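Z., the sequence and structure:
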Amino acid sequence: MFLFILRRAGVMALTALCMTFIVFLLTNLQPNLEKLAKTQAGSRITDAEVQSWLERNGYAEPILSRYGQWLGVLPGALTLAEDGTPESGRCIRGTTVDSVDEVPRFCGVLQGDWGYSTKFKVPVSEIIGERLARTGLLMFWAFATMVPLALIIGVLAGMREGSATDRTLSTFSIASTSTPEYVSGVIFVVVFASSMVGLRWFTGSAKSAVDGITFENFTLPVATIALYGMGYIARMTRASMAEVMTAQYIRTARLKGVSFRNIVLRHALRNALIAPFTVIMLQFPWLLTGVVIVEALFVYPGFGNALVEGAQNNDIDLLLAVSVVAVVVVLITQLISDIGYAFLNPRIRVT
């Protein structure tokens, strides 16, 4: 198991390196850099002034050099004034220094420096930490709602395949999976948070949840996310449960007179949860990046909202940080999924 994890960690590091370079290359295309210069220095500056701004801030260097600086394996670019004092550079963005000795030589991701947000005028690490914590709360409550309900629905439907209960729950699962978040979210707002129907039980905005989560301001965003993911997990659980219930050892247990309740709980349930476990783990990346629509709909300033604001304002460092976090979450959840699958399935041997 240790060697397996070690090999997977090496593959994960290589994959993350490749993915971050691709994202870095796309976000640092010349049109994006020119737009950034005009956003920061003025929309009416000339092409020569754009080039001058890019050179002063280190954006005119070769792409591989800037990628190395962003990673923290190459010294950060630094521009000196005529008197020899630091004027601009990657390692002094958002700060003021009086001498070259005060400027760090390396200031990249490996040193914990994610860059400086040109939109919010603060270090990117502060934004990522704050927004990720908010989305983490949203993901926690969505998972706490989605997974138990999906498993219950899937198990109940798969226990008696073809019954009225199975058909009803399967129809609900298909309907929930087929309804995008922006549709179900709007329906929830119209029905439960507007005066059109009269059921103003909840608030249509989750912005107030920043100051404190309440039942009124957090129920609709959680329900919108949970409803969409619930159906897929329930369908996978139902299919797995139905297959297990027709296995030979289940028939043997029935012939021995074991009660139906014990057959389900002691024999069928563990084996039926092997396939849904992988699906559940793969919901983490979807929740992290797929909450963009929900956070925009309910005006919730979370991780997905940071991605939107970074893209709208051409905030390169913020976009890079959001992308890296998303890549890392995907890779880690895949590793946990593989390890958990090996523990749940005794036929799998990891070496």
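The chain is about 65% helix and 0% strand. The beta strands are 78-80, 86-89.

Let me know what you think.
H.
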